[in-house]
Specification:
Sodium/glucose cotransporter; 2 strands; mainly alpha
């Protein structure tokens, strides 16, 4: 890169640190400020922060690889996580359900659901440990992708036998830690807002360049990696590559790393099933944290909608980069071999001086915004759910803030150590989503919809699933993703059900208090029978409306993302179809969901 590019990057880094340190004093007032911003952060800032946190470098490199190697239909593979389709569920009902709980963490939520007794404490502790474990794994995932990306541009050499990617990730994480540790959620959100603006600006510029100056021929080759090492070429026609409608099967070579997606239709249905369960169960981490920090039901819905809208710009950008990577190969007769390197290759070889620095800064912003959200959220589980409850219940705010900052550093160090034995971004991401995620997904789902689930069953399901995920990772690491998911979730489900029925139900008074506060739908007959008839009818009316709305919201989000993709690909036949469907879905959402948003749902 040129001196101009480096100057842009250093200015960006200085601004990030400055904004973060500005909020240091506010964050130091207590853990409510450190982790929730005292619930005074505007909804649009929380939504923009969520978008910036989702748009990470590692995921962008993987998603670009899928589009490059599999064509536009590769978009559907990322229903497993990269599309963040769970946001449709958060927008309609899961966001407000989380906000109504009035807690700081998912683990603290267990006390509301299962009580302050033994079962509530066990569920809280196991949940906190599981989330902390997942946080360390996710830090490793982002460190690998961010390290690969930054090492490529800064030309970092091997130091003391450490890989350049590891050294680069240490540099990036150290800089992000300066403001993350100092300023808590306030600093995280407002730096994310600034970074979000930078990210969107770079996205729009790259999309304009790709759309205006790069045109693919009617046929071309791309390269895909082989399982045993090396690469092979795959021929495509332009119409086939740019077709957004997925086929029931694809024809990757059997020895290719992408051959696991050959049963494409089954894979997509499986990912949709997983997304439905995950969206209906909610999540912990930084996603739930944004809703715990929301000021009202209405703002929980608004921040979700804004989050989805701004995140929709990610996919046209990914398509633009893939097109430029293919065009480079066509023009120069040299195919980019590793699909995961298409993003840095295009930036390094096809982006002009000045804009290159802006784009690298924007993608560094994406990496750092994801990292800071994960670390801040993860630290809250140590402080709120382990240290404050089981180690030092009488700790004052000063000690709690110190623990918040200290635990943030420890989480990062553990994540970096974990990266030393990892190399593939897709492998660690697959394990996080289909392994660790599977260990959480069933108990998180059942907790909302079945009154009989107790804290012992929840804890058993989480523990059984997480242990199975760890055993499979370290002893049976090469099995297919769906087998991985089914095994882990199967152990988790059976553990949950068996232990629940072997132990006593949660007391009715606790269940009634939980239900009246959060008002979920599902199997709550014995609890709802204690409510006033009018109150019960109002809850049922709201729930029916939400169920219909989420059926609209899921295709609405998919169509929104695909519309931008087809525009950049110049597939006008597909673009006009999607552009006609999108307003219809938007109008349906307006009448069935948006116009019913209120600061608090009136139940009486």
């Amino acid at each position: 890169m040129s001196a101009i590019d480096y100057t842009i990057i250093f200015i960006y880094l200085g601004l990030m640190i400055g904004v973060g340190l500005y909020f240091q004093k506010i964050a130091g007032s207590g853990i409510d400020s450190y982790f929730l911003g005292n619930k005074k952060i505007p909804w649009w800032a929380l939504g923009a922060s969520g978008m910036a946190s989702n748009l990470d470098v590692s995921g962008t490199m993987i998603n670009t690889a899928f589009i490059y190697a599999l064509g536009a239909s590769g978009f559907f593979i990322e229903i497993r996580g990269g599309i963040v389709l769970t946001m449709a569920f958060f927008m309609i009902f899961m966001g407000k359900w989380n906000r109504r709980a009035n807690v700081m963490t998912l683990a603290e939520w267990m006390v509301l659901r299962f009580g302050k007794g033994t079962e509530g404490k066990i569920a809280r502790l196991i949940c906190a440990i599981a989330i902390l474990l997942s946080t360390v794994a996710i830090v490793s995932y982002f460190a690998i992708g961010g390290g690969k990306f930054i090492a490529h541009f800064l030309g970092i050499p091997e130091i003391f036998g450490l890989k350049p990617e590891f050294t680069a990730s240490v540099i990036m994480i150290f800089l992000a830690m300066i403001y993350t540790v100092a300023s808590g959620l306030q600093g995280v959100v407002w730096t994310d807002v600034f970074q979000g603006v930078l990210i969107l600006a770079t996205i729009l510029i790259v999309c304009f360049i790709s759309f205006s100056y790069f045109f693919l021929p009617e046929s071309f080759d791309v390269s895909v990696p082989l399982s045993g090492g090396g690469y092979t070429s795959i021929p495509y026609s332009l119409e086939e590559w740019s077709n957004i409608w997925p086929s029931w099967s694809i024809d990757m070579p059997e020895n290719s790393s992408y051959s696991i997606y050959n049963l494409f239709g089954i894979t997509i249905l499986f990912y949709l099933f997983k997304t439905f369960i995950e969206g209906s169960g909610g999540s912990g981490g930084y996603m739930a944290q944004r809703f715990f920090a929301a000021r009202s039901d209405r703002e929980a819905g608004l921040l979700s909608a804004f989050w989805i809208f701004t995140l929709s710009f990610r996919w046209p950008f990914i398509v633009a980069i893939a097109i430029m990577g293919i065009a480079y190969g066509v023009q120069n007769g040299v195919t980019i071999q590793d699909p995961e390197t298409v993003l840095p290759f295009v930036i390094n070889n096809m982006i002009p001086t000045g804009l290159k620095g802006l784009l690298v800064a924007g993608l560094m912003a994406a990496a750092m915004s994801t990292f800071d959200s994960i670390v801040n959220s993860g630290a809250s589980y140590w402080v709120r759910d382990i240290y404050q409850v089981f180690i030092n219940p009488k700790a004052d705010e000063k000690k709690l803030v110190f623990q918040s900052r200290f635990s943030s550093v420890i989480i990062v160090l553990l994540g970096l150590i974990f990266t030393l034995n990892l190399s593939s971004i897709n492998d660690i991401y697959g394990w996080i989503t289909m392994g660790l995620g599977a260990g959480l997904i069933i108990p998180l789902l059942i907790r909302w919809y079945w009154w009989r689930l107790n804290g012992y069953g929840f804890a058993a399901g989480i523990a059984g699933g997480m242990i199975t995920a760890l055993v499979q990772k370290f002893y049976f690491g090469n099995i297919e993703e769906y087998y991985f998911f089914l095994t882990v979730s199967g152990v988790s489900l059976s553990s949950t059900i068996i232990v629940t029925f072997l132990t006593q139900p949660t007391p009715q008074t606790i269940l009634l208090d939980f239900y009246k506060k959060t008002r979920p739908f599902g199997f709550w007959g014995p609890v709802k029978g204690n409510l006033d008839v009018k109150l019960s009818d109002n809850i049922n009316k709201e729930n029916r409306r939400d169920i219909i709305s989420v059926i609209i919201a899921v295709p609405w989000q998919l169509v929104l993302f695909m519309t931008g993709m087809t525009l950049i690909m110049k597939r006008w036949d597909l673009f006009f179809i999607l552009a006609a469907v999108l307003p219809i879905l938007t109008i349906l959402l307006y009448f069935n969901w948006f116009r019913h948003l209120s600061d608090e749902v009136k139940l009486e």
